[in-house]
Amino acid sequence: MTLLNLDYEVYPCPKGGTKYRQFVKENGGKLRFPYFVDENTGTAMYESVAIIDYLFKHYGKSGKTPKKYAHYPKYPVVALVGTVINGARGVRVNPKIVDRDEPEKLLNLWGFEASPYTRIVRGVLTELEIPFVFHNVAKECWQDQGPAALRLKPGKYVPLTGGKREKIVPVMGRVKQDIQVPYLEDPNTGAQLFESEAIVDYLNKHYG
């Protein structure tokens, strides 16, 4: 999804969760993940490989799945290792929130899927069963390489002209006029936060 720069809604279904797992079973027929729904075409499906093929077919430039993504391993070892390193965050529901109502409005999270800091926040959102819109902020040129505080290219940050990041700079409203992820906005409280540690503290305080 980051490669295609697609934004999407996430309805977390951790083990032991009670808010959205039943929807998957009732609408898909089985309790298996990921479960993907595209309201633009009325498509709903399981299986990572099938979903990847679908995304490239409908949202890729060529309509074909690149070879490196065409044969996704049955057991994604690298992804599993990442989950372990991350302390298995996002695998199981936080038992304290089982009876908590879902937020009135979806939260908004900006990041990209390979970002370790964004992954921490996504894990906590999953544990707390908080639905959110994930805004992908893919790196679009070599000037985007490196963290916000230490870009490989010194000087003022200049996003790709006409790119998605150029449109997001004013959304984040940073003094340096650059991009930093993860970035969270909660329309339910008006909160706007950078830094994974601050975001996690906020989520646990308000929704934990």
From TrEMBL:
<feature type="domain" description="GST N-terminal">
    <location>
        <begin position="105"/>
        <end position="208"/>
    </location>
</feature>
<dbReference type="InterPro" id="IPR036249">
    <property type="entry name" value="Thioredoxin-like_sf"/>
</dbReference>
<dbReference type="Pfam" id="PF13417">
    <property type="entry name" value="GST_N_3"/>
</dbReference>
<feature type="domain" description="GST N-terminal">
    <location>
        <begin position="1"/>
        <end position="63"/>
    </location>
</feature>
<dbReference type="InterPro" id="IPR004045">
    <property type="entry name" value="Glutathione_S-Trfase_N"/>
</dbReference>
<protein>
    <recommendedName>
        <fullName>GST N-terminal domain-containing protein</fullName>
    </recommendedName>
</protein>
